[in-house]
Structures are given as structure tokens and as C-alpha cells.
Amino acid sequence: MKRPTLEVVAARAGVSKSSVSRVINGETTVAPQIRDVVMRAVHELGYVPNGAARNLVTRRTDTLAVVVSDPPQGVVSDDPLFSAVVRAVSRELETAGKRLVLMLAESDQSRTRVEQHIAGGHVDGVLLVALHGADPLPAALARQGLPVVSFNRTSAPNVPYVALDNAGGAALAVRHLLERGRRRIATITGPLELYEARERLDGYRDTLRDTGRRSIVALGDFTRASGAAAMRQLLEDDPDLDAVFAANDLMAIGALRTLHQAGRRVPEDVAVVGFDDIEAASYTTPALTSVRSPMADQATAAVHLLLGLIDGGPTSPVIMPNELVVRESS
Amino acid sequence: MKRPTLEVVAARAGVSKSSVSRVINGETTVAPQIRDVVMRAVHELGYVPNGAARNLVTRRTDTLAVVVSDPPQGVVSDDPLFSAVVRAVSRELETAGKRLVLMLAESDQSRTRVEQHIAGGHVDGVLLVALHGADPLPAALARQGLPVVSFNRTSAPNVPYVALDNAGGAALAVRHLLERGRRRIATITGPLELYEARERLDGYRDTLRDTGRRSIVALGDFTRASGAAAMRQLLEDDPDLDAVFAANDLMAIGALRTLHQAGRRVPEDVAVVGFDDIEAASYTTPALTSVRSPMADQATAAVHLLLGLIDGGPTSPVIMPNELVVRESS
DNA sequence: TCGCCTCCGGGGAGCGTTTTCTCGCGGCCC
DNA sequence: GGGCCGCGAGAAAACGCTCCCCGGAGGCGA
């Protein structure tokens, strides 16, 4: 089951390797007649260029890595948005004629493997997803001199990113609750090592502070379970609260469950607003009000930024806008 | 920013390229003293072997492709289990020292690209996920002479697979509903081009037939929206039904929503059982009874099967068992 | 008609590895 | 003590492709 090589095709077509190569790569300086005979030979033999050999000389791989830096619990990769991001990235690369290799970096060991892989020249660029603020990976990768784009704000200086307006989104949510006449508005945060979580918390705090109200904060980690637990905590600490802003939808779903178990009506007793507007948000009871994260758009933007970077383009960060989707829970 | 090559390492260590290569590849026929001096040079220079060059001569890439054959709507890749599968596969390959390239085949065009990529020698094997029964891809890939494992049963003859006991799982669900005293048990199916969907329907039908009861079937496509729509249909067609078996949890969630809107109590009026036991199943109101699909285990098994295949192992299909997780909805 | 310029095709040198083959040296057995 | 065997290291040939460089042919202008 040996695949034919350039040389075999050349022999069959009765031309030189060079000509075949030119035809394959779509160069225009080749006579139509030669082009045709080469194409025929290619089809007859089912020739497909060997990737390794091509990479070796061109130093391009047409492959981009998506590196997901994530603790073993899988905070990020468990997120429903993960699929959406992967899909959007995949499609975008598809149209650009690039390939996608996905690497999860869960441990130091796998982080090293990622770096080795990058250093091994297997990819032309890296899209980093959802890292902790202090993650050493972005800086390490950027040091390799390879184009890197982060899917979040990051502490590494020279790494361009595409981020949500997290603080703005949180402000949207809180102002909405205030307009609904809510007085005691609590929040459930994400893991504060993540920029997104911190920014959403900041947006919540700043908005409340502007109106002279007090913050009521419980810590979560972006999982349903943590949302449920944080909600229990909040009810215990502050039984009079009348609204909750959860820093993502999964935690909001957990909170809804706790509220239901505690006999609180939503939204009559307690209003709930989430963040991300994942599909499940429309299917909770009651349906969840949420700040929409345009994840697919963000992914597309990130890919474009990265592709631009590879072609030597500019590196300006991009901030995505967001909007509030009001449903029954608030 | 040029990376050092084998040759400069050899020069630095004062040995031949061959020796460096041997050290890098962990061959034992090299004197400890040489080994040390090479290792030192490697570390000092931060040498990492060039992948393309290595692939070119070894004809191995240490890379496996996960090909997701999926219509553009993203039936599969939208599924929460998709993340779980990707995570499990990624981890398993990590420990095996392999890399993962993810390819979504949504259109004929991208299908061709996938085939080209495979033919280009970029990967050592392929793991096919969630294809339609009539998908031409498995057969096409198998024809390339490359190890292929399917994540579902497939129509291609020579492609080994790892599958769930879908019919058995459906039977579990239906028998459970019968034991609860339900008489009119409906089902919402997945898209019947998928083997899984057909098998789950068969399991439902056969179990009911054994007890002499009538089947009540509505078609869905594994999405929440289709579950909600199918449930509306069912209520209209057969207002007296007292139980529903949905062929996956997403559709069950959609059905719950419709039942809630229609004022039916779950489980008092209508019992609901889903399939897959995704995490969201624990967080619905009421919590959803579901047939657990051991997706992570299935993914692990599939990877093992594929790795075994690459090393020339046997190709026996694997069937995963499943179990019923009873919660509040039934 | 001749010469020069242009354009197109071929030859061949690399790209960075692995791997085979060869060679030298030392030890062991007779 | 000599010959043979085996082990470890180096030289060099691939692997399949791209791309530079050169040569030949054809066209056009003088």
C-alpha cells in the first residue's frame, strides 16, 4: 500500500519533478499542455503530496494548534462553550485551508509536551484558550518566536488577545437587576485566577458601588455544583437577598436548583441572571436571563488575528461586545 | 530565531550525528559518557528534533486524527458528550505519547480535505466519531490502508468499532417505566440515519412488543428544540400518555420544558427518562432519570483499540455496557 | 537573417532526520 | 599468544519535496 511519489508522477507524465511540483502548487508559469498531462497522471495514480517532505523544505505546516490550558477537573473543556469554540475555530481554519491540532495542557508534564511539540516545528501558530492569569504557557510559547493569540486577556505582555467585555457584561446584568427594583443583589464568582472571573466580579462591584449598594459575594468555580453550593452559602449568609448574578450560566443553573430546593420562587423572590447565554439557558425552569457571549464570533476573530499575525500583520487586541438576553428568571 | 539541528548538537558535543540521534531516541548501545555529553549539549542548546524531518524517514507521525463527521447543524459536536469524548481521547493519547488532530467533516468539500490529509501521511490512524450509517468516509479511509476505529457501529465492513449497548439501554429505560406502572409509554427518537438512534428505537419497540403494548413514536434529531417539538406532537396525538423515553438527554430536557408549559406534572402525570446521563441531567427540574453512557470509558476503549491496531493487534469490536440512573423524573 | 531577450522546463542541491553499513578496537577462548 | 567475535561509533545514503539556477528554444526587433 505504498503511495506514489512526485517522481513516479513525473515519470508517468513524461516530465520532470519540477514541473509536477509547479503544477501541484498552482504556479502559473507552466504550459497548459504540460499542466494537463500532469493532472491526468496525478489523478490516475491518486497522488497526494507527502506532508512531511513538504513541511521539511517549506518550513510551513499549514497547521495551527489550539492549546487549552485547563486544570484536570476540566473547568474550561467541560464548558458547553468549548464545543462552540472548537467548532468555530475548526470551520474558520477549514476555509483558510489550515489544519487544527488540539492540545489539552492539564499538567506540567503535558505543558512540557505542548512546548516540545511547538518547538518541534509542527505548527505555524498557536491559539491559547482560557488560561489562568498566571499561566506560564503564553509567555513560554511567545518566547519560541511563534505567532500566539490568546483567547483571553493574559499576563504575558506580547501576546495579543481577543477578549469579551466581561466587566461591561456584568454591569449590564447588575443594572438590569437594579432597574427591576432589586435591592440586595449577590454574585457568584468564577475561579478568581481567571481573568474573566475577576473582570466579571469587578463589573459587578463597580456598578453596585456607583449606586451605593453593598456587594454580596460567594466564590464558585464555573461548575454547576459550585453554583449550587455558593447559592446555599448566600442564602445562609443573607436570607433577604432578592437577586443573584452568577458569573456563568452553569453556576446560575446550579443556583436555580438550590433556590428551588429552598422553596424560593424565581423570579418572584429571587431574580437570577447568568453569563454566557449557553443553549441550556433557554431550557431551564424558569428560562434564564443571561449576558450573551458571542463565543463563535470571538473564536472567528481570534483565528483571523492569528492568521494575520502569521502573515506578519498587526497585533492589536480585540474586545468583543456583549448584550443582555432577558428571559423569565429576572 | 533559528532552532538548532542535530548537526550543531553533534558538533557541540564533539560526536557524530548518529550518536546524537541514538541518544535522542533512547537507544541502549551508546556509552554512558557519550550519552552525558550529548544530553548536556541538547539542554544547553534547547534542542528539539524537527518533526517533519523525523516523520519523513520514519513514516510515523505519532499523530492520530479524530474525525467528526457531522452535518453543519452540529448534531454531534454540539452534544455535551463531545467535550467529554475529546477530553478522554486527548488524555489517553497524552499518556501514549501521541498527538491529536481534530477534523470536522461537515461538507463534501471538507470530507475531501480530510481524505487528502490522511493520504498525505499526516497521521498514523483515525478515530471516527458519530457518523451517519451511510457515511462514505469510514470505507474511504479504510481503503487508504490506515488503521481506522469507529466510535459507532458503521456500515463499512472492515472498520472495527466501540459502541454502546444502545438497544439494551433503551430496554432498561422502558422496563423501568413499566415497573413504575406506566401504561402508555412514548418515545422521542434521534435522527434515524444514526445507528445509535435506530438501535435505541429498536430497544424501545422490542421491549414494548414483548409486553404486548403499543409503540408511540415521535421523531427528533437529538437537539433540545426537537425534543420540545416532538413532545408537543406527542401530547397532541396521544393526550393520555403517561411516560416518555427520549433517545438522549437533550431531547428529554426539551420535552420537560414542553410538559411544564403544558401544565403536566413530572413525574406524577408523565414520567420522563433520557439517555446519556449528561451532567445537565442532574440539574433539571425535576432531576432527570437517564441511561448512563460511559462516554469517557468508550473513548478510552476506542483509543486503545486504535493504538492496538496500529501495532498490528486484533480488531474485535467492543460493546460498552450501560446502566440506569434513577432520579426524580420517573 | 542574426542576435538578444524572455519564458519555460529540467537538473540537482538541499531541508533534518534515521538507519544501514562499515570499521576499529578490545576481550575471550583455544 | 593469536585469531575471532561482538560491540560501539562514524560515514553516508536515503526519505519526498521545493526551489534556485541554468540552458534551450522561440519570438521580435534591428
Automatic annotation (TrEMBL), chains A, B:
Q: Which InterPro entries match?
A: HTH_LacI, LacI/GalR-like_sensor, Lambda_DNA-bd_dom_sf, Peripla_BP_I
Write down a Pfam family by its short name.
Peripla_BP_3
Name the UniProt record assigns to this protein: LacI family DNA-binding transcriptional regulator
Q: Which GO terms describe its molecular function?
A: DNA binding
Q: Sorted alphabetically, which keywords does the UniProt record give? A: DNA-binding, Transcription, Transcription regulation
In what residue span(s) does the HTH lacI-type domain sit? 4-58
